[in-house]
Design goal:
Strand content: 35-45%
Radius of gyration: 20 Å
Shape: globular
Largest sheet: 4 strands, antiparallel
Mean pLDDT: 86
Number of strands: 23
Number of helices: 3
Structural class: mainly beta
Oligomer: single chain
Strand order of the largest sheet: 3-4-5-6
Order of helices and strands: HEEEEEEEEEEEEHEEEEHEEEEEEE
Helix content: under 10%
């Protein structure tokens, strides 16, 4: 009886998780009527009539007309609005290659271990991922800039889901006042066709910041705006991240405040960096003397 009540409660929480969340324009300090989300941002997540709901971070699992979904019992592919089972199993942390041919996912084994696997979406065949030196692996996303999946691993132990997404509970209880700089993470690249894993050749932390959206484009191919918190110096460095060469170029430093890329939006024409910190929307000038990149 208790378990049934728990399941009912969890289902209701899931159903109402995004109640009260919406997008509103602000003009002259006044809140306007609710509007649609900005282009490229699917938050709150899409809802449709399919029996298996869409993933929260849908951009990770969508490639062209192909989309992945999972209900805890099987992995599915959605094409042209139709749902088709790929294979049975409890899959989570899904990601799809840009050509829609390969999926990378974490799967529960019969022993309740969680293992990363890559799946050929045309044949449904599943292949284990050889992690080499990576332990406690997390699937980050597919990087179109290099044509490979990015995976992360915590150095020296385990980490919670909140840690992975760069959040740590603050004194105000909002879970937003302190940010992890992800300095205890290592990163690897997985070739979707061969399954070979190699160490990421440079800075990869900005990609691990991505949650409800991708990084904001900075105007050139494979370049994005990123915010790199530095807990040691109690500051955040804002700059341009090159996802092709795994390089971060600092532009401006924000002292005494820690936030990551998902809390920030850059207005290049207006010359300002807007960000959220402890429930406040703040801004700093974009132009500033060069600063050193935070150490990984």
């Amino acid at each position: 009886e208790y378990y049934k009540l728990y399941e009912k409660r969890q289902a209701e929480l899931e159903r109402r998780k995004y109640d009260g969340i919406g997008w509103y324009p602000i003009a002259n300090g006044e809140l306007g009527p609710q509007t649609s989300a900005p282009a490229g941002i699917e938050y709150p997540p899409l809802k449709d009539a399919l029996t298996v709901p869409a993933e929260d971070e849908r951009w990770r699992v969508t490639a062209g007309q192909v989309e992945l979904r999972s209900d805890g019992e099987a992995l599915y592919r959605v094409t042209q609005g139709k749902l088709a089972k790929v294979r049975d199993g409890k899959y989570l942390s899904l990601a799809i290659s840009a050509d829609g041919k390969w999926a990378l996912a974490s799967r529960y084994t019969e022993e309740y271990d969680i293992v990363p696997v890559r799946i050929n979406l045309a044949t449904g065949r599943e292949f284990p991922v050889a992690l080499q030196e990576m332990t406690t692996p997390y699937i980050v996303s597919f990087m179109p800039s290099v044509g490979q999946f990015l995976m992360s691993s915590y150095l020296g132990g385990y980490a919670s889901e909140d840690d992975y997404h760069g959040e740590d509970e603050g004194w105000d209880g909002t879970n937003r006042s302190v940010r992890s700089d992800l300095g205890n993470m290592s990163f690897g690249l997985l070739n979707p066709a061969t399954g070979a894993v190699q160490k990421a050749p440079g800075e990869a932390r900005p990609i691990a910041h991505e949650t409800f959206r991708r990084l904001q484009p900075a105007g050139k191919p494979n370049e994005f705006w990123a915010a790199m918190p530095d807990n040691g110096k109690d500051q955040t460095v804002v700059g341009i991240y090159d996802a092709r060469f795994f390089n971060f170029k600092p532009v401006v430093v924000v002292p005494k405040m820690n936030f990551n890329s998902m809390d920030m939006w850059v207005d290049q024409p207006g010359g300002k960096v807007y960000f959220v910190y402890k429930g406040h929307v703040l801004a700093v000038p974009l132009a500033a003397p060069p600063v050193a990149a935070p150490k990984s």
